[in-house]
Each structure stands twice: as C-alpha cells, then as structure tokens.
Amino acid sequence: MDSSLHLEIEKNMEIVAHNDRADRYKTIERSICTALSCIHWGNLIGNADIPAHSSQMSHLIGSYSNPS
C-alpha cells in the first residue's frame, strides 16, 4: 500500500475515533442534564419518583462510560 494512502487512512481513522468520543461525551452530558432536571423539578413538586430518576441517571452514565 502506498505510504501516503496509509497515512491518510490512519488520519481518517483518528478523526472518526475522536468524533465518536465527542458524541459519547455529548450524550452523557445530555443524559446528566436531563436527569438533574427531573430531580430538580421532582424536588419542587414533591415527586415520589426521585430515586427512580437517580438510578436511571446512574444507569445512563454507566452504559456510556463502559460501552460494550
């Protein structure tokens, strides 16, 4: 394989890996913000389901931090 082509392929693979990580972090950030919003509004209105929101947030963080 031509060395310049090989370098171009490696460069593109690094860009794809970087974008994948960035997307994963954005998803984690959105999940945390959503969960915190649920907890915040739950506290304001006295929602009894707050522990469920907390466990959902932990599950979301765990699933994105340790992708299978």
Strand content: under 5%
The number of helices is: 2
CA radius of gyration: 19 Å
Provide the structure class: mainly alpha
Give the topology, please.
Blueprint: H1 3-45, H2 50-65
Helix pairs in contact: 1-2
Structural commentary:
This protein is mainly α. The protein has one domain (3-65). The chain has helices at 3-45, 50-65. Helix 1 (3-45) runs antiparallel to helix 2 (50-65). The two termini are 32 Å apart.
Put the structure in a nutshell.
Helices cover 87% and strands 0% of the residues. The chain is mostly helical and 68 residues long.
Question: What key phrases describe this protein's structure?
Answer:
single chain, 68 residues, mainly alpha, 87% helix
